[in-house]
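User: I want to check something. If I give you two sequences, will you return the structure for each one separately, not as a complex?

Assistant: Yes, each is folded on its own. Here is the first sequence with its structure:
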Amino acid sequence: MAGSPSTRAKLSAADLQGRWWTWAASSVSESNPVSDQDGHLCAQGQASGIWFLAGTFGGAVKRSCTVPAAVPVAFPLVNLFGETGDCTEFMASAKGSAELDGKALEPERHEATAVRISAVDGNPLIRGEGHFRTHSCGLWVQLEPLTPGRHTLSIRGSSGSFATSVDYKLRVSAG
């Protein structure tokens, strides 16, 4: 079933979060998918084997995005990186929801997990460039590859005073 939890092995909490943060920190501010207001940057820096979708730095956006068929999709409802204590505080009030084609998706809850992140200079997430060891946490969804065609995805997340809202119109290419 398109968009249901994968029968393939899901990424571990460390791999999922480390890879997502590296993806998000691999573009400078002007071409960063998290800063994207309409979806034109959704293919920016995508790694092989998984297709990442982004939230926002706060606030609401509507995006259109073409996603390849036969590739699992993953995204956070809300997430953070920092010290273990930062994650403990963040996760205490973290909540969110996601719906694919009107059907609720069950998020995975990842508490403080040790991750390694690579970043380029000028990215809007991490000061500086290089490789960093930190902790990441959040509410995450991993989906099996979506069926070709059109899909709608609604992502909502919050923690404390931070809130994000993204409505995606996804077009899954047949090949």
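And separately, the second sequence with its own structure:
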Amino acid sequence: MKLQRYDTSYIKDYRETSEGYLTVNVPITRPGVFPYQRQDGTVQMEAKLPDEIFSDRTIRSACAKPVTDEHPNEPVTIDNYNTYSKGLSHNDARVEDLKLYVSLTITDKGLIEKIYDGKREISIGFMSDVLAESGTYNGQQYEYVQRNIEINHIAIVDQGRAGPEVAIRSDSDAWQIENKGGHTMPVYKIDGKDFEVDSVVKAHIEKLQAQVDAAAVKTAQVDALQGRYDALEAKLEKTEKDLADEKAKQVSADELGKQVEARVQLIATTKPLLGDSYDFAGKSEREIKEAVISTTKQDFKGDGKSDDYINAFFDATVEQVQSTGFSSTGANSAYTGDVGADKDLDEMKNKRLNMRS
């Protein structure tokens, strides 16, 4: 939803026509940061940026618009034009000196008299989208930006917002000087020197300057956004690294739990076979398994044997012991010296090896 706004400038020069009308050439707005009052009475700083007020849309909207005595309490339309209009703007809206200019002709006698008496500030009434965007323009902080600006009317007011910086200028303006042919031409200053230029050329140069200023504002905004983006990207990378570290820790903890559980199970399985005197401290899984195998084959040597061989031999030994009820000591020892039993163990071991392969 568009909001209605008002900006002001100051009439410095005007010219009376033969009919008694007043014709003025006035800068009606300029880039800047301006205070606007909310409905609750508080004030918010809004930016009118060059790329908005110097857009083709806004420049066209300044043409053929009614001139009013103060701001009406509603937009001026064809239905209330005769009530509010005291004149009309021309179709010469253009950019000069980083301001938006347009000529006005005031046709109302009462308003003309007020101007002669000192009522000379001009305030545009316009509609715009006001978006929450913070930043700086020419060193001034703003909280909101006016977008899609469309001028509705141009009011003559007692006191306005921008003051005398934006002022009406006519043919008697200081930018005009007389040349040898008796005609007037605009003056453009380059590196401290004045040059006469065609008015079209001057307007084009100033429009280009306005575009440069607009580009500078955009560049600053892009740099600010890039800075915020880089900060967020760095934060995201740190968060992802922290999550990866936590996941690695969790995997390590799970793996450690599995190793502890396997160690407890191994000790529980082998302790009845090795006896209470066997010291498990500092022994690797393979050393414990080789000790179990040695209870059935006293001359067993694990040197040069693969882990798969040791594991298969161990599984076969445990299976045989558990099935026959052998223990680590006494007449029912796992190692019996019985050749037949040793043969059976070899067969079981070979079967396990065949299954693993």
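Because they were folded independently, the notes below concern the second chain alone. The first strand starts at residue 3 and ends at 10. DSSP finds eight helices and 14 strands in the chain.
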